[in-house]
Amino acid sequence: EADIYQTPRYLVIGTxxxxxxxxxxxxxxDKMYWYQQDPGMELHLIHYSYGVxxxxxxxxxxxxxxxxxxxxxxxxxLESARPSHTSQYLCASSEPRGTGKRTDTxxxxxxxRLTVL
Amino acid sequence: AQTVTQSQPEMSVQxxxxxxxxxxxxxxxxxxxxxxxxxxxxxxxxxxxxxxxYKQQNATENRFSVNFQKAAKSFSLKxxxxxxxxxxxxxxxxxxQGAQKLVFGQGTRLTINP
Lengths: 117, 114
Known about the structure:
The complex is a heterodimer.
Chain A: E1 4-7, E2 10-13, E3 19-25, E4 31-37, E5 43-51, E6 54-57, E7 65-66, E8 76-78, E9 87-94, E10 106-108, E11 112-116
Parallel strand pairs in A: 2-11
Antiparallel strand pairs in A: 1-3, 3-8, 4-5, 4-9, 5-6, 7-8, 9-10, 9-11
Chain B: E1 3-5, E2 10-14, E3 19-21, E4 24-26, E5 32-39, E6 46-52, E7 60-61, E8 64-69, E9 74-79, E10 88-96, E11 102-104, E12 108-113
């Protein structure tokens, strides 16, 4: 079944640690996104990618970095986690407009809730 | 820059009743897309309904329908025959034709009372 996966679902880690949040999708989507969401609040786009070797920063400044070496995989890395990074991180992907659709419906993963102590 | 505003942080409705969630947006563009997403307590966001600005007809998906008022830049979501499973955070989102990125509103937490 085509889907979008995120691991881990929950992560509690100490300050200064390097972490990588994984995101994979099996839908063959070219476009992928990372959002940051504080509990009960709106989503803010922090990174996006339109395809392999393409990455862009989103509207909200973030100290995290991303890579897109494979179509299905879009990991997010924090080199040195800090308490200010505590948040929920949501990954999403969408269909390319070349499929005949005028707009992209974004499909979201379950999220990773990150707590930095 | 486009902005999306949801003025109702919380709403509640009795089961089987109808509820309307409000959303307004600000844009200078004429061609864009609007979405309602649902985020249940388990946190996975799912698409409820979408509307293309060039279409005058309001979108409907089963019990969910929208009232799209382009001139007023308003995009409300109506949920008919509310069910307990409808309890969630609802986010209104905007996507411009060129940007291919979503701008989200602040969300409305919907509670269904049995």
